[in-house]
Amino acid sequence: MGLRRSWLESANAPECDFPLNNLPYGVFSVGDSDLRCGVAIGDRIVDATGLEAAGLLPADPDADVLDAPYWNDFMELGREAWSRYRAALTAMLAEGADEAVQDQIVTHSVPIKDATLHMPFRVSEYTDFYAGRHHATNVGTMFRGPENALPPNWLHMPIGYNGRASSVVVSGTPVTRPHGQLKGRDDDVPHWGASARFDLELEIGAIVGQASDGPLSVQQAFDNIFGYVLLNDWSARDIQAWEYQPLGPFQAKATATTISAWIVTAEALEPFRISTPDRLEPLLPYLQEPGPMLYDIALEVGLAPTGKAETVIARTNYGEMYYSSAQQLAHHSSSGCPMRVGDLLGSGTISGPDRETRGSLLELSWGGKEPLTLDTGEGRCFLEDGDTVTLRGAAMGDGYRIGFGPCAGQVMPARP
Amino acid sequence: MGLRRSWLESANAPECDFPLNNLPYGVFSVGDSDLRCGVAIGDRIVDATGLEAAGLLPADPDADVLDAPYWNDFMELGREAWSRYRAALTAMLAEGADEAVQDQIVTHSVPIKDATLHMPFRVSEYTDFYAGRHHATNVGTMFRGPENALPPNWLHMPIGYNGRASSVVVSGTPVTRPHGQLKGRDDDVPHWGASARFDLELEIGAIVGQASDGPLSVQQAFDNIFGYVLLNDWSARDIQAWEYQPLGPFQAKATATTISAWIVTAEALEPFRISTPDRLEPLLPYLQEPGPMLYDIALEVGLAPTGKAETVIARTNYGEMYYSSAQQLAHHSSSGCPMRVGDLLGSGTISGPDRETRGSLLELSWGGKEPLTLDTGEGRCFLEDGDTVTLRGAAMGDGYRIGFGPCAGQVMPARP
Q1: Which of A270, B312, B364, B404 is the most core-located residue (most Cβ within 10 A)?
Q2: Which residue on chain B is closest to A150 by alpha carbon?
């Protein structure tokens, strides 16, 4: 499939993140206005709340599900309604749409540059996985040595832990360097201090769009995923090293998790489905994929010191993941764990096999032993105050791209 | 302080869980009625939603915060409002209250035996700790040997992990035995099956009643806790053993967590405050308690096979905890993690030093090696289908008790 052309010319540029093929969902405000649901197209945001209120584009015949500062109620409608809505909106925005319809859209839209973006959905619960083999191998090697790099269970299940939904923030939100218990290798006892090894993690977040109350098959799990965002799982490595045994990361991951502002729907990504890499061990049937459920999404990490130019410190692809979000969701529900609309599943850090494809500073600087050199000439092992980290991602089509928009955050100094 | 006498005679019996000194908060329905907020007193439930609607006992002069099937909106009002409401209700229920007031209460109340109890609050997020020293030592000895029983960080911080809020259910809800990945010590690869080592954990849950957005002192944390419930953290030990390294328990703990139906307020427990045990290592200042913040609460675990009499398999006391809920909440917020109204913090399993004071079957049967004998003559290492587990707890006053009501659940067979 090629570019679907829109009468909105800005949507047809090959470098545009938001062509008609994309139509990602977000929440925006302009000035002091209420928060509204919006859809990005070209350089504009279509006011989905306004179109619904005017009766021009209802998502549900029975209720105003978009009269809310989040897309959760829309998600609850289910997969058929998601498709119907997307098809109707696509028709209104496609080249050749009635002039009257075009006028309605122009009336009910604003330039992206005039809008403030907010959390696109209410996060019910947040789970983070550890499902990239290169990342797990790298971190395992540093923490436990090369012979114990991959834990024995790793090739049999997507290892995950519950994170903290309250800490999820939208792109652009500053992130304050955390304090915590720190204990150096040669210290007898821990001390209290600001994290000196504050890190980023490049991930993709999957958003659960349908509730369930029992074990899901991988296909059911795939069908229940509404869409995806970029996700930066900020991590205090020094807090993590001291706290994480035996029950896993806790405060090291609780300061903030940043997501991009636009939900890219599973439907928009459909042409970019790819298979997970070959299995090194056979999976139990409940985790086997009936078809390709990963996506070919090019990813990069930018790091900019305060007031200076950005360096792209890593480039990789979502296709590096060993487990798809569908497999993760199937595993998550395997014990009967109820899943809810708005649950967010972090993929785990996405690293490729080579140094320049690693999705965290822990890996890029090999635990702080091999500093990166930024284009500005500065070195970096971990994040410094003022650093802005920006994740970017896009599925690359023929003459168009399905972009995610930035997932950015600046590190603020620790509290006094 | 002794018993506060009520004109409702059933509240004055020494064995009553709900004397005037208690006044725990729950949510109830009668027949097909809507869910309403209620307060237990003697053998009745005062309809707090109804009293508010009638203008007889407003919690907030500006809004009907009790016109909801949960106490979250009430909690948001804050500590002063909590106290004011409790004082007003106490006055209406105390011996000597006006006959007109007594008539109002009788009109707006129902017998407990006629009511169905529901979740008393909406769980925002659920965190489970591992803060009982006897439990951690027992489990650590079984999992890692006696020399590595307590992890090196254990005496320096309350170890915790994020659990799954969607899995929290109210007392009386059946619990289905989970499936999961299981791998015996001599197996080469895991298989899929129903958990054969399904267990209970005796805990107390603390409910966060005020939101925060940065590190809390222990005193602030104490002040933000609204109340407490009994909590059974159902655990599939065989799933846990295979999955928990390196990122902690996940599906082993996600099937269900049962809480008792009544929130016993911190204010009701005030006369029962006790100190945590002596420190084996000094704590960092951010975790030091300015005063006694544990409670003297007698606890017991009952186990009844289908259709048979119950055996009390353990008796212990909340005072065995090494860390209080206030310390746990302070630690939880230390990284800047935002805490929200309705967050639930499990204490960790409460075990005493002796076998009969252990709060899990894992400990009571020493990993399945030393079966318990029930009063019925049956043996138990772990839970069998049909078993009903009931936790009970009460702070024992002079001639009265602050009871929690039961925290019960029956184990249903695994899905086919």
Answers
A1: B404
A2: B246
